[in-house]
Each structure stands twice: as C-alpha cells, then as structure tokens.
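Example for tutorial group B:
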C-alpha cells in the first residue's frame, strides 16, 4: 500500500471561519430585533408618572444607554451598539407619528420628550463611547 493517499479533512480554518461568521451575523440580527422590541415596549410604557415625574421615561433613557453600550462592549464593535439603537429609533419614530385615526403612541408631553430626545442623546453617547476596534479602513493599506 505504498500509493495510498490520506483522505481529505473537511474541517479546518475555512469551516470554523464560516461558522464564526454565521454566529456573528445571527448575533447582529438578534441585536436589531432586540432594539425593535425595546422600542415597542418603551413606546407603550414610557408615559408612567410618579408624583408628577415621568419615571418610566427616565428609566427607559437609562435602559437605552445601558443596552447599546453593554452590547458594544461585549461584542467589541460599534456595530453591536448601533443595531439595537437603530431598531429602537425606528420604532420610536414610527410611534411618534400621528396615526390615521388621530391617535399618538408617543405624545408630545414631558414623558414623550424625555423618552425621544433623552433616548436619542444617550444612544448616540453609548455608540460613541465604545472603543474603536482598530485602524480605520480609510487609513489601511491594501497590500496584495
């Protein structure tokens, strides 16, 4: 059996890289869905007051800083912070618009303003506070 050839191994760096890419893509998709869910929940619950203070809107502002910042730090990319923030922003702006019946989900009162403007500021801050992952693609040299 001098001429026998070893069988090819199908598992290797290419397979691991493909699985890693699929898991990363699924994680990013899940983060976008998480942002939409947070936007829906926040849109319907931000109007709770306690002693004249919009405590639910303030709590949602804290949550909307913590979630993008935490996800960005855990995954190590600003994209991981951007996706839940964008999902939340899309749902919040949809809910801030007037419906054909004339109803509003996020009204133009103190709680609505705290929720929309405060949330927008803190998601921007959360994204910008994530450390950069390396050199910008504009500054890299493409050597082949």
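The residue assignment follows.
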């Amino acid at each position: 059996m001098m001429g026998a050839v070893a069988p090819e191994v199908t598992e290797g760096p290419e397979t691991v890289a493909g699985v890693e890419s699929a898991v990363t893509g699924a994680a990013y998709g899940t983060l976008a869905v998480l942002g939409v869910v947070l936007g829906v929940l926040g849109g319907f619950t931000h109007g709770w007051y306690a002693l004249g203070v919009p405590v639910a809107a303030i709590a949602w502002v804290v949550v909307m800083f913590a979630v993008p910042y935490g996800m960005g730090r855990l995954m190590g990319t600003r994209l991981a912070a951007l996706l839940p923030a964008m999902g939340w922003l899309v749902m919040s702006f949809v809910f801030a618009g007037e419906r054909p019946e004339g109803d509003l989900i996020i009204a133009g009162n103190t709680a609505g303003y705290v929720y929309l403007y405060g949330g927008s500021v803190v998601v921007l801050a959360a994204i910008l506070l994530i450390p950069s992952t390396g050199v910008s693609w504009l500054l890299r040299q493409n050597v082949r």
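Residues 54-132 form one domain. Compare this with the pattern of hydrophobic and polar residues in the output above.
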